[in-house]
Design a protein that fits this description.
Elements: H1 23-46, H2 50-82
Helix pairs in contact: 1-2
Pfam families: DUF6124
Organism: Pseudomonas tolaasii NCPPB 2192
Protein name: DUF3077 family protein
C-alpha cells in the first residue's frame, strides 16, 4: 500500500515579530519585557547568596538600564505623536 503524504511546510522560526507591528507596539512590548525581567531578577536575588546574588543583581541593573532607555524612547515617541 502506497500512502501519499503532503510536503511539510517550509521551516520557519519559532518566534517572530510581526513585520507590520507599529513602533508604539514594539516599544511598549520591549518596555514590558524589560520590566518583567527586572521584577523576576529581584525575586530571584532574594533566594541567592554570594556570587550568584551579585550576578543576578548585576543583570538586574543592566535590565533596569534597558527600562530607562525604553522609557525615554516612549516619551519621545509620545511627543512626536502628540505634535
Amino acid at each position: 500500500m502506497h500512502k501519499v503524504t503532503p510536503n511539510p511546510p517550509p521551516p520557519s522560526s519559532l518566534f517572530s515579530v510581526a513585520a507590520d507591528a507599529s513602533n508604539e507596539t514594539l516599544i511598549t512590548n520591549s518596555y514590558e519585557t524589560f520590566s518583567s525581567v527586572t521584577a523576576l531578577l529581584l525575586d530571584l536575588s532574594e533566594d541567592l547568596t554570594g556570587k550568584q546574588r551579585d550576578v543576578a543583581l548585576a543583570i538586574h541593573q543592566l535590565s533596569e538600564l534597558g527600562v530607562l532607555l525604553m522609557d525615554r524612547l516612549m516619551e519621545r515617541e509620545a511627543a512626536v505623536v502628540g505634535s
